[in-house]
Amino acid sequence: MSRNPTIRFMVWRNFALMHSKSVKSQPSINHLRAYLSMGVKANSVKTFISYLLSILVQAKRSVLMARVILALVVFGVTACAERLTSHAQDSAASATEILTNATAITNVTVIDAVNGVRKNQTVVFDGDNIVSVQTAGPPADTARRIDGTGRYLIPGLWDFHVHLTYDERLTAVMPQLFLSYGITSVRDTGGLMHEILPVVEKMRAAGEIAPRVFFAGPLLDGEFVVYNGIGRPEIGVSVPTPELARQQVIEMHAQGVNFIKVYEMVQPEVFDALTEIAGELDLPIDSHVPLSMRARDAGPRVSSIEHLRNIEMDCAAGAEKLHRARLALLQNDEGISGAALRTAMHSEQRLPAIGDYDEAQCDIVIAALQDTVMVPTLRLNSFVLLPPWQRPDWQEALSRLPTNVSRDWQTQAERRRSSPAGDPLFANWSMFLTNRMHDAGVPFGAGTDVPINLSVPGYSLHSELDMLVKAGLTPLEALEAATLEPAKFFGLEGNMGAIAEGQVADMVLLDADPLEDINNTKRIVMVISKGQRVVEQ
Ligand SMILES: [Zn+2]
Predict the structure, then answer these.
(1) Distance 497 CA to ligand 1 centre (A)
(2) What pTM was estimated for this model as a whole?
(3) Which residues make Cβ contacts (< 8 Å) with residue 508, sequence separation at least 6?
């Protein structure tokens, strides 16, 4: 096999037939619950009757006593029967009640990563709960009905990498923008606690129309912090020692973070402490591969990795040498800033490492990352391959932003459009590595890093889905990356990520088939968030 990445890129482009991952099935939690409660009821009736029978045996010498016991048995059985009947009546009453408050989407094609494609379905939801999904028969007796004929219903989408507080001009408008593009859940991967907490609280407040939000708090960085507020927003904090790392995570956990984000400048002993305390507190870890470590060592110890960051350095023939050189640079003898130090290391190692690509080395790395969700942010990594201004609907998306931001971004876009395009090596590498990892069965998450680099909230998630398909995922796998995989990251796959009984009522109704063209995820007719119809075209 060639070590020349350009040749390898061309080779993979010719692998036109991408295998598709088999769709996983899972038991419905509600079925399980119903089954369990039935078992308990049956057992208690049995126990009661056998208890009475044992008394009867003991009292067989006395006819009078036997009569008394017989009366007791009759009484007991009657009472039981009455209880069961009244329970059945209760159930029937609540079923009727559910239907009169519910909404049915009729005759719709349901698409999700758990069940694949199901045609002619009636999906009934009541508040924030999907009550049933059935092949369309006689119309359900529900209060409201939505005609799904010729339409496609997918689970609400996630943007798995957002920064709600990165640009204060956008913070307030982001929730509505996300919803308007069908994004009903977001994972915030970095913001200072005092900034992100009020935003999360507002989004979660009762009656607030906003996506579900999961957040990490600040980037946990090394002695030298990259995002320290100088020349770029302050979204990182320094955790220079294992003790401080532990303390920081314990505090953030008490403040309610849903996971932690480990950044690039942390030292291995701090990384150890972070993974240990996160494990104790049951917090998933999102990460950039720290520059002090190798992807094959750090990767398997975290739940997700962003931007494929620093993986190229471990895929090089000279990976070990590059690692030693990084350790020397990290001494930071010149005392430069965290941001400058990181940039220096990237520019010294990134492109040379890609040029030194070694398939056997990379196979070891990919094997180590089998269970780590990759969030390649291809919209960002491979920006030069398809900049947003080349997309026909970007101008319209831009017009939805506050005027000061849209003008600013328009100017940036025009300036960049007229300047020479950058080196596409890293962009191509990101597509190539995504393809190789996908072939090897590595799981993917769809995230954008919004609003960084002209990323319109909501809109850019659809660009990411498009790029994932261009990299080799099937449209259904791209949907999986924006629905089921994010749910699994938080252990919520029993309640989110599919359209099935017992799942939350986050759904997007489309008027074109997303499996035919992934860009049809933008053909939105209706968005249902937490059981509410929040967008209707
Ligand atoms: Zn980010």
Answers:
(1) 23
(2) 0.82
(3) 153, 154, 155, 156, 157, 182, 184, 521, 524, 526, 527, 528
